[in-house]
Amino acid sequence: MNGNTFNFDAVAKYYDSWYDDPVGKAYDLQEKRAVERVLPEAGENAKLLEVGPGTGHWSAWFAVKGFQVTGIDISAEMTAIAAAKNIPGARFIRCDFLEADINGPFHVAAAITSLEFIPDHVAALDKMRSLLLPGGTLIVGALNRRSLLGVTRKLKGAKDPVFHRARFFTTGELRKLLSRYGSPRVYGSTFALPFRSLVRTAPALETIGGALCPCFGNFIVGSVTV
Q1: Distances from the Cα of 9 to the Cαs of 69, 78, 80, 94, 226, in angstroms?
Q2: Are 177 and 215 in contact (CB under 8 A)?
Q3: What digits encode the pLDDT tens for the residues 160-174?
């Protein structure tokens, strides 16, 4: 089966450059703070399954948090770049997640900005849930369709080489998806505007946006304990 709506091999070599840009750095900081709100503390030998790790950017962060990370990605180029980073505590497997034969169970299963590109995202979530230990945590970080960035990317259409085929979510949709497994927590975050000249306003916008209009954050994160 074709388990991805976009060929990430084509952008693998410059994918990480986003995190070198001032705007990318600001977004990355706020996104990680949002995921940290729902990420359980890693106990001894805590295992984390990451669906769609790409170049391993989030994998490295999860590993620093104390997890033994197993990343499954369909892109050969992305997987090669991730593996070449030699991230302590992380291993990467090139495979379609829905067809992968994975040895679990895991304490955490996470999909960070990857569920948008999996055609059958419900099947992916079901499989993630099935690989969790009782009491494990399912985490999804997604791009918000109702945010300024989400609307802008959709308006660009095919001019956006990566996101024009992505399926963005809203906070309500993410909550409904995760409600199939328990009582979810869903947060909106990353309210910074995508302009270098306004990066300095990111902390203030995060505080104001989180308090007044969390459903419009550029990045939404949801979790559920199963």
Answers
A1: 22, 6, 10, 12, 34
A2: no
A3: 666 667 788 999 999
More confident residue, 61 or 3: 61
As a whole number of angstroms, the distance between CA 199 and CA 217 comes to 15
156-to-46, 117, 152, 194 alpha-carbon distances in Å: 41, 17, 6, 15
pTM: 0.90
The residues pairing with 186 across neighbouring beta strands, listed in sequence order, are 222
- Residue of 154 and 155 predicted with greater confidence: 154
Residue 146 DSSP label: T
Q: Which two tokens stand for residue 52?
A: 């769609």
Please tell me the total number of residues recorded for the chain in this structure. Answer: 226
Residues 6+ apart with CB under 8 A from 201: 192, 193
- List, in sequence order, the alpha helices (H) in the chain: 12-15, 22-36, 57-64, 76-84, 121-130, 148-156, 171-178, 202-212
Rounded CA-CA distance 17/58 in Å is: 14
